[in-house]
């Protein structure tokens, strides 16, 4: 499999649009080459996580099924690659039911400025594979969800047949 990089005019080129860039510590480049030699699949999975990690979180939530689908490797191969990434401190893994949050080592790779980085356990990009969804997923996705109204702190909840005062102009201005 080969990939080519083409000159894409739509890629960001100004500092204000650098949200699509990641930074790599030069101190880890030799170790990165070692990871590629040790396990090409582990390096591929690390790149996949980096491609999808949140700007300030360095984390992605996805299942092994998604990683096997994306890489084309077996679950056992993906598990071995994840084990290598964990043992060599490229990532930290936080279990969330059947999925995991993969936190990329922010000393190696980060996106936001160093003063904006956060430890990412509770905030992450979530990758859900279509193949893991229920068979009627596409039909359900088109259905309108039930709206749940919330009462703001500045609002008063009306219960039963309670009589309300007439509205004033402030209540009627919709702009």
Give your account of this protein's structure.
With 175 residues, this protein is of the alpha+beta class. Helices cover 31% and strands 13% of the residues. The protein is built from six helices and six strands, in the order E-H-H-E-H-H-E-E-E-E-H-H. The chain has helices spanning 29-38, 40-52, 64-71, 75-87, 137-142, 169-172; strands at residues 23-24, 59-62, 91-96, 99-104, 109-110, 125-126. A four-stranded mixed β-sheet has the order 3-4-2-6. Strands 1-5 form a two-stranded antiparallel ribbon. Strand 3 and strand 4 form a beta hairpin. Helix 1 (29-38) crosses helix 2, helix 2 crosses helix 4 and helix 3 (64-71) packs across helix 4 (75-87). The radius of gyration is 23 Å and the shape is elongated. The N and C termini lie far apart (55 Å). The model is unreliable at 1-15 (pLDDT under 50).
Give me the side-by-side strand order of the main sheet: 3-4-2-6
The tally of strands reads 6
Output the number of helix runs. 6
The percentage helix is 25-40%
| Multimeric status of the protein | single chain
Mean pLDDT: 76
If you compute it from the alpha carbons, what radius of gyration comes out, rounded to the nearest whole angstrom?
Answer: 23 Å
Main beta sheet strand tally, sense and closure? 4 strands, mixed
Query: Gap between N and C termini, in Å?
Result: 55 Å
Looking at the structure, what is the overall shape?
elongated
Q: Name the helix and strand elements from N-terminus to C-terminus, one letter apiece.
A: EHHEHHEEEEHH
Indicate the structural class.
Answer: alpha+beta
Low-confidence stretches: 1-15
Strand content: 5-15%
